[in-house]
C-alpha cells in the first residue's frame, strides 16, 4: 500500500539583505522510503515552476543535531530552535530557515510509515529485487 505524507510548512528564505516568507511542503512517500522531498511553489523559483528537492531522510535527521551533508544539500542546526537547509544549484545557493520542532514532527510522522532501518523490508524490497534481477 502506497502512503504519502504532506506537511505544509512556513519557512524563511535567507538572502543577503533580508529574510522572506517561503511556503514549503515537506513530503515523504513509502514508494521512496529513504528520501524526503521539499516542494517549493512556483512563486519561490526563478522560472516560476514548482521545484522539488529530494534527499536522504537520514540527512535531515542528522542535520537537526549537527552539520551534515555533502554536494547539493547541507543541513545544520542554527541555535536551539532553527535548522538551516542549504540547497546548491547551477543558478546559485538558497539558504532556508525552518523551525526545528516542525522538521522533527515531520520526521516522526515519516517513521510511522517506515521505521528507520526498515526501508528495505516487505513489498518495497520485493519490487526492488524484481527490478534488479528481472530476466536473470
- What is the percent of helical residues? 10-25%
**What's the total count of β strands?**
7
Question: What profile does the largest beta sheet have?
Answer: 7 strands, antiparallel
> Uncertain spans, ≥5 residues at pLDDT below 50?
none
Proportion of beta-strand residues = 35-45%
Shape: globular
Rounded average pLDDT: 90
Radius of gyration, in Å, reads 16 Å
Q: Strands of the largest sheet, in order across it?
A: 4-3-2-1-7-6-5
Order of helices and strands: EEEEHEEEHH
- Determine the number of helices (DSSP H or I, runs of at least 4 residues): 3
Q: Terminal Cα separation, in Å?
A: 27 Å
Structure classification = alpha+beta
Quaternary status of these chains?
Answer: single chain
Characterization of this structure:
The chain is an alpha+beta fold and 136 residues long. Helices cover 24% and strands 41% of the residues. It is built from 3 helices and 7 strands. It has helices spanning 57-63, 100-113, 123-133; strands at 4-14, 19-29, 35-40, 51-56, 73-78, 82-89, 92-99. The chain has a 7-stranded antiparallel beta sheet, with helices on both faces. Strand 5 (73-78) and strand 6 (82-89) form a beta hairpin. The longest helix is centred in the last third of the chain and has 14 residues, at 100-113. The mean pLDDT is 90.
Amino acid at each position: 500500500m502506497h502512503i504519502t505524507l504532506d506537511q505544509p510548512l512556513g519557512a524563511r528564505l535567507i538572502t543577503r539583505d533580508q529574510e522572506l516568507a517561503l511556503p514549503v511542503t515537506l513530503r515523504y512517500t513509502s514508494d521512496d522510503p529513504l528520501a524526503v522531498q521539499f516542494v517549493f511553489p512556483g512563486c519561490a523559483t526563478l522560472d516560476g515552476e514548482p521545484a522539488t528537492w529530494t534527499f536522504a531522510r537520514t540527512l535531515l535527521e542528522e542535520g537537526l543535531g549537527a552539520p551534515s551533508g555533502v554536494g547539493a544539500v547541507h543541513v545544520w542546526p542554527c541555535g536551539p530552535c532553527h535548522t538551516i537547509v542549504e540547497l546548491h544549484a547551477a543558478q546559485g545557493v538558497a539558504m532556508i530557515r525552518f523551525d526545528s520542532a516542525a522538521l522533527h514532527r515531520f520526521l516522526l510522522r515519516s517513521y510511522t510509515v517506515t521505521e528507520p532501518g526498515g526501508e528495505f523490508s516487505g513489498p518495497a524490497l520485493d519490487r526492488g529485487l524484481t527490478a534488479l534481477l528481472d530476466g536473470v
